[in-house]
């Protein structure tokens, strides 16, 4: 029987999305830091390869030298075990981390400034829908405005499309702005602002304008600084759209037409596992799949609807402060 080690490198990457050296490092990390173990019948590396192939394709293919003798039930169990291992706190904190120091944030700021001529930016935020099978409980919470069941997953990425934060806890019926206000990254960004650090994320018009979250100015006068700001904002914010495109093209189980046939909690773990693997792939400088679309229009369009904001005095004050900070930013262009 042909060994997977004998598989040509390009074919290996096509099937499993990682190259052999990155795959071996991943297996070692999983062995050292998680409870994932192989058995006499199914070695750890076969479990990992089986899971990688499912995440890369969204189907239970049988690959010579890997899973041709495994039943679908066994294959599914391997996928669940590896996904759980990739969700281990040690792996998550190693590969998905929001910039914690002034120095880390300054490096990202400088790159956004260099690439897009926009100061103060440390990340781009948006949500994307991950299609799931109709859940048996709270079905209404997962039925999105596009007419299918999904998770609405919030992510923040940097200038290199690295995922720095992810929230995959909410169903497709939840609005982006609600996920933002419920996330841990919102109070963290608020804290940075209140500590005197002028940094912000870029979000679309589905988000509330805040001193730490910059949104585009709709219908800005032609030739104005506001139009210049919005043009640069849109250009910089393509980072998160390209991040979603690369994530879903490399790990195709997340594509709209694949539909994860799992409980929402498991679908959430699969999404997190793919984000870990996305960052591992970037770290290894692996080329994007050759069939990635030139432009990927994501299926989340909450930007076309008004933000659902309560009219508390605190929210009004934050909006006023947000607009003042936006005016300050525009004055620096």
UniProtKB/TrEMBL annotation:
Keyword presence, Nucleotide-binding: no
Query: What Gene Ontology cellular-component terms does the record carry?
Result: cytoplasm; nucleus
Which InterPro entries does the entry link to? DUF8040 (IPR058353), HARBI1-like (IPR045249), HARBI1_animal (IPR026103), HARBI1_dom (IPR027806)
* Low complexity compositional bias, start-end: 303-313
Tell me the GO molecular function terms.
Answer: hydrolase activity; metal ion binding; nuclease activity
Task: State the UniProt keywords alphabetically.
Answer: Cytoplasm, Hydrolase, Metal-binding, Nuclease, Nucleus
Q: What does this protein do?
A: Transposase-derived protein that may have nuclease activity. Does not have transposase activity.
Q: Where is the DUF8040 domain?
A: 12-86
Main subcellular localisation:
cytoplasm
Name the UniProt record assigns to this protein: Putative nuclease HARBI1
User: In this protein, which residues make up the domain named DDE Tnp4?
Assistant: 125-279
| Protein origin, superkingdom | Eukaryota
Q: Does the keyword Cytoplasm apply?
A: yes
* Family (UniProt): Belongs to the HARBI1 family.
Q: Where in the cell is it found?
A: Cytoplasm; Nucleus
The taxonomy runs: Eukaryota, Metazoa, Ecdysozoa, Arthropoda, Hexapoda
Which is a Pfam family this sequence falls into? DUF8040
Region of interest called Disordered, as start-end residue ranges on this chain: 293-315
List the cofactors.
a divalent metal cation
